[in-house]
Amino acid sequence: MLIQTKFRNASLDHAADVNGILAFSQPSAVSLYNAGATIYGQGDPSGQLYMVEFGTVRLCRVSSDGRRQISAFYFAGEIFGLEADEQRHFYAESVDNTGIRVLRPSDGDKFNESMLKVALQSLTRAQEHLMVLGRQNGAEKVAAFLLDLAARQASDRLVDLPMQRCDIADYLGLSFETVSRILTKLKCSGAIRIPHVKQIELIDIEELEYLRG
Amino acid sequence: MLIQTKFRNASLDHAADVNGILAFSQPSAVSLYNAGATIYGQGDPSGQLYMVEFGTVRLCRVSSDGRRQISAFYFAGEIFGLEADEQRHFYAESVDNTGIRVLRPSDGDKFNESMLKVALQSLTRAQEHLMVLGRQNGAEKVAAFLLDLAARQASDRLVDLPMQRCDIADYLGLSFETVSRILTKLKCSGAIRIPHVKQIELIDIEELEYLRG
DNA sequence: CGAATTATTGAAACATGTCAAGGATCGTGG
DNA sequence: CCACGATCCTTGACATGTTTCAATAATTCG
pTM of the prediction? Predict the structure, then answer.
């Protein structure tokens, strides 16, 4: 299955579509959010798209007994807020200090066309995430997460972790203790260094890629 | 979090969009596939959409060490084959005897618009599946699966299982033994009956819904 | 009917979760 | 600038759910 590496992160290369959206929308001013602020709630009316100007956004849902699943993170330059119907299925929060721009369609048709591309990229990412959640163990999940972040930050070695361990855990379907344990294990095996709690240096990228599968 | 039940299966109610797609495409003749036949392979050029006429389709990927994840099932009336770029990220196979129609766009603009809806529904479904894979245990996963099938088959009590245990397992991120054990457990607890290996009768739907969360 | 496949069930191994304690980090106010 | 409290992170010990391996039973198909 060598083929699959060709697709990895295909969804991440969407600069062109971001430009497409921007060209046919009227961006509003940037709104600022502190860490942990609600951008929109589950059940809110949907309709507008958002672009992360700086900072980090998490898309979440909480079940009745309090378990939380984070379905996606969004970083600077990425677009979120697409919904299938008139209500939001997930709620969106800022992870750290975050600036967000609301996008309003100006040229309907072209905007729609760009939206399709954004939708397809979100779909691809969700599908990739399905692979990770369904069939990978803890170490493989964390390796995949770190490599994904590295690719999206366009930094080949030094990765920023704006979110806390608990966010990573709820994204990967693990407990935060397990995430912590795996990170120290990777550190001890020499695959990564942890210069700071919120910063990981990828040392043995081949090992991480091997882990990811 | 009572809100979330309102969204469940929202993505499944897409008859309108299927009609939208059909109105602006030139459906070809129906192709027939035996159980386990390849409809398209990973890495194949993408472009065409497909509609299931009868039978069942599974969308899969296999990792280098042989673990398989099924990202979605498609049943009669449902559309699949949407991709973010020119190559297929997953491969598609028939689960049982299946009839499939290729859809070719005739009116580009309207076809595109319908595609957006299909994409958003696929996205919603993938996101719902993320919730199940990330934060539910075996019994909850199986309950969610049975209720999803019941909703899509529009049969409130008797659910057909065209796929084998192994397919269910690879869809839910479990081993097929665990799937089997959970089904017998649900049978013993009186939540379901298993009149046939490939047919489940939902007895205590409230219990299943409670399990699903 | 018989062979091959698929499903069920059991026992033991393993990964991850849970509970609990201690340590690090951060922000705030003195 | 330091000290304090609060939050977050790490680590350990134990409990639990799930997988794995193995054997048997059921089903399908020729």
Answer: 0.92
Q: A28 is written with which tokens?
A: 């509003």
Q: Is B36 exposed, middle or buried (0-12, 13-18, 19+ CB in 10 A)?
A: exposed
User: What are the chain B neighbours of A65 within 8 Å (beta carbons)?
Assistant: 213
* Whether A82 and B123 lie within 8 Å, measured CB to CB: yes
Q: Is B137 helix (H, G, I), strand (E, B) or coil?
A: coil
Q: Which residues lie across from B193 on neighbouring strands?
A: B201
Question: By CB neighbour count within 10 A (0-12 exposed, 13-18 middle, 19+ buried), where does A43 fall?
Answer: middle
DSSP, residue by residue, A96-126? SSEEEEEEEESSHHHHHHHHHHHHHHHHHHH
Q: How far apart are the first and last CA of chain B?
A: 10
Q: Are B202 and B208 in contact (CB under 8 A)?
A: yes
State the nearest Cα–Cα gap between B120 and chain A, in angstroms. Answer: 5
Strand C contacted by A137 CB (< 7 A): yes
Model confidence pLDDT, tens digit, residues B153-165: 998 899 999 999 9
Does an H or E element contain A16, and which?
helix A15-23
The predicted structure's pLDDT at residue A1 = 32
List residue ranges whose Cβ is under 7 angstroms from nucleic strand D: A 164-166, 176-177, 179-181, 183-184, 194, 197-198; B 137-139, 173-175, 177-178, 181, 196-198
Higher pLDDT residue, B207 or A5? B207
Please tell me if residue A51 touches chain B, with a CB cutoff of 8 Å.
no
Asked if residues A58 and A70 have their Cβ atoms less than 8 Å apart, the reply is yes
Rounded average pLDDT over A43-53: 95
Q: Which CA distances in Å does B20 have to B5, B116, B136?
A: 27, 11, 35
